[in-house]
Amino acid sequence: MRILIVDDEMNICLTLKNILEDENYLVDYSLNATEAMTRFKEEQPDLILLDVRLDGRNGLDLLEEIMEFKPDTSVIMISGHSGIREAVKAIKLGAFDFLEKPLSLSKVKISVKNAISFKNLRKDYDRLKTDIDEHYRIIGKSKYTEELKALIAQVAPSDSKVLIRGESGTGKELIAYGIHNLSTRKDNPFIKFNSAAIPNELVESELFGFEKGAFTGAVTGKNGKIEQADSGTLFLDEIGDMNLNAQAKILRVIQEGEFERVGSNKTIKINTRIIAATHKDLEKLVEENDFREDLYYRLNVIPVQAEPLRKHPEDIPVLIDHFSTLFSNELKIPPKNFTPRVMQELQSWKFKGNVRELKNIVERIYILIKSEEINLENIASLFTADIKTDFWNETMLFKDKKRQFEKKYLETQLKINQGNLTKTAEVLGLQISNLSRKLKELEIDIQEIK
Predict the structure, then answer these.
(1) Which three-class secondary structure state does DSSP give residue 293?
(2) Residue 261: strand, helix, or coil
(3) In angstroms, rounded to a whole number, what is the distance separating the alpha carbons of residues 136 and 440?
(4) Burial group, residue 222, by CB count within 10 angstroms (0-12, 13-18, 19+)
(5) SS3 label, residue 56
(6) pLDDT tens per residue, range 358-411
(7) In this predicted structure, what is the pLDDT of residue 388?
(8) Do residues 374 and 340 lie in contact, with contact meaning Cβ atoms separated by under 8 Å?
(9) Over the stretch 265-322, which tens digit does the pLDDT of each residue have?
(10) How far apart are CA 140 and CA 326, in angstroms?
(11) Which SS3 state, helix, strand or coil, does residue 24 take?
(12) Strand 53-54 and strand 26-30: pairing?
């Protein structure tokens, strides 16, 4: 760790230098502001000990200049003539600590140690935040994806409620985080709650928290997800699965900004933005009295539709490249090359599981296929593996299963041969007329395969 001491008194500089070098720090010093700023820009020290009053320069002005150049610099101010006003100003400008002369050497060492520990924690936080941002990054270059990113940027600055609709695997959580990360709440918690993942009897205690003794097993109290999201964003995933009792309490949180923990009469005020998501038809649930109509309208202030992957297949190559890099790094193996024909083939798939299914397929390719180039035969082998595990275990009438097999097999062969009827007939040992008749019988549209 590099430390720069800035003081116009030589004896103070040497004393601090000696005690800090004993702690195994690399220490240098400057006796004036001009030299200090030059060294700071050249050496980029981890920490600066800066006197408030320098010969011909105010240390607080130098502090401001340092923070403008490199805002994450740790600075400890030292002074023998300043009061509370200067100390408060220094902290507001970004100083980590303020020490008064005559200096206590033990306090100096403690303050330096704390400043460096805090700096390391900040680095860890920044790395973690970068990882999280990367995890939640929306990947794609299609018109849909670009319009979605623009909508997120437009919606984020307000505190309006957002309801995200879409099939499973379409990235509803990514959209919610994107809104949070561009909002004024981005430095506060983003808390997730999935109603479908928790038994109904536990939803309220998990969401609103509980007091000690509220129920059997509640040996201590616990903050709920809503309390954890105070000043931040609460993402209510699968809101359509939430029971009516919890819905009523969520409605109160939205309307009044308050709630009570389970087992308590004490009202807790809360300031959180709520973003909800569902794959269900909420309008139908409202008609069937399984979802509160008033809550539906409270949540559906800004509706956002997460489209299925099959509606923006042009994003598939970009997503494959992203997941390929991800699994190459994770598994520590060379990146695989997906041939243009493979990309074209995968763009024709329906992907009922959407982006999540595509990610699983890329991961499976990285684990099960050894070659670095991925061709149609590799994809066909994985597809056959799916048939072995799912197709053969399904029980139905023999004639129906036979038709299903013929259709899947011929569709796959046509795809491998890029919809070329002559070539497909040749590799299968069939007459073109017989193959054409079979395709018509099985209602296979060769134009769709092309």
Answers:
(1) helix
(2) coil
(3) 45
(4) middle
(5) coil
(6) 999 999 999 989 899 999 888 877 765 444 445 565 677 888 778 888 888 888
(7) 46
(8) no
(9) 899 999 999 999 999 999 999 999 999 999 999 999 999 999 999 999 999 999 999 9
(10) 15
(11) coil
(12) unpaired
6 strand-pairing partners = 30, 50
Contacts of residue 242, Cβ cutoff 8 Å, sequence gap at least 6: 195, 203, 236, 250
Amino acid at site 139 = I
Strand ranges across the sheet with 233-237: 190-194, 233-237, 273-278, 162-166, 302-306
> With 0-12 CB in 10 A as exposed, 13-18 as middle and 19+ as buried, what is 65?
middle
Whole-number Å distance between alpha carbons of 132 and 9: 46
CA distance 237 to 235: 6
Write the DSSP assignment of 91-131 as a string of letters.
HHHT-SEEEESSPPHHHHHHHHHHHHHHHHHHHHHHHHHHH
Q: Alpha carbon of 148 to those of 115, 141, 154, 179, 191: distances in Å?
A: 42, 11, 10, 11, 22
Continuous segment of H or E residues that includes residue 49: strand 47-51
Q: Are 442 and 410 in contact (CB under 8 A)?
A: yes
pTM for this model (two decimals): 0.69
Burial class of 313 by CB neighbour count within 10 A (0 to 12, 13 to 18, 19+): middle
**Run of H or E including 44:** none
**Which helix (H) or strand (E) segment is 34 a member of?**
helix 33-43
Q: Which residue is associated with the tokens 């038994």?
A: 199
| Cβ pair 397, 382 in contact under 8 A | no
Helix (H/G/I), strand (E/B), else coil: 75: strand
125-164 pLDDT, tens digit per residue, is 888 887 788 888 999 999 999 999 999 999 999 999 999 9
| Residue labelled with tokens 């805090």 | 118
Residues in the chain: 450
Set out the domains of the chain in order of their start, with CATH numbers: 2-131 (3.40.50.2300), 143-307 (3.40.50.300), 310-375 (1.10.8.60), 394-450 (1.10.10.60)
- φ, ψ (nearest 5 deg) of residue 7: -155, 145
DSSP state of 420: -
Question: What are the two backbone dihedrals, phi and then psi, of residue 25, each rounded to the nearest 5 degrees?
Answer: -95, 150
Question: Regarding predicted confidence, which is higher, 148 or 79?
Answer: 148
Give CA–CA dist 409/402, Å, rounded. Answer: 10
Picking from 387, 385, 381, the residue whose alpha carbon sits closest to that of residue 416 is 381
Tokens, residue 302: 């800004």
**Cis (ω within 30 of 0) for the bond into 189?**
no
